[in-house]
Structures are given as C-alpha cells and as structure tokens.
C-alpha cells in the first residue's frame, strides 16, 4: 500500500502522528510526503 500526501496546509506534524499510528498496524505501509 502506498500513500501520497500533499502538505498544502502545513499540517505535517499532525499527518506524521497519524502515519505513525498507521505504520504500527500496517508495517508494509509506504508513505511519500510531497
């Protein structure tokens, strides 16, 4: 699974905390911050 996130509102910190939770349940998750 690949997730691409576009940071248009400067909410990277919130996104990272959410992604950390996703990674805990999905070890094979690949994320690209763009």
Quick structural summary:
The chain is α+β, with helices and mostly antiparallel strands and 34 residues long. The chain has one helix and two strands.
Low-confidence stretches: none
Largest sheet: 2 strands, parallel
N to C succession of SSEs: EHE
Beta-sheet strand percentage?
15-25%
Amount of helix:
40-55%
Give the end-to-end Cα distance, rounded to a whole number of Å. Answer: 16 Å
Mean pLDDT: 74
| Overall structural domain count | 1
Q: Going across the major beta sheet, what is the strand order?
A: 1-2
Task: Describe the secondary-structure layout.
Elements: E1 2-5, H1 12-25, E2 30-33
Can you put this structure into words, describing what you see?
Strands 1-2 form a two-stranded parallel ribbon. With 34 residues, it is of the alpha+beta class. α1 (12-25) links the parallel β1 and β2 (30-33). The model has no long low-confidence stretch (mean pLDDT 74). It has one domain (2-32). It is flat. The longest helix has 14 residues, at 12-25. The chain has one helix spanning 12-25; strands spanning 2-5, 30-33.
């Amino acid at each position: 699974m690949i997730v691409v996130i576009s940071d248009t509102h400067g909410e990277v910190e919130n996104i990272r905390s959410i992604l950390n939770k996703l990674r805990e349940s999905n070890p094979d998750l690949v994320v690209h911050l763009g």
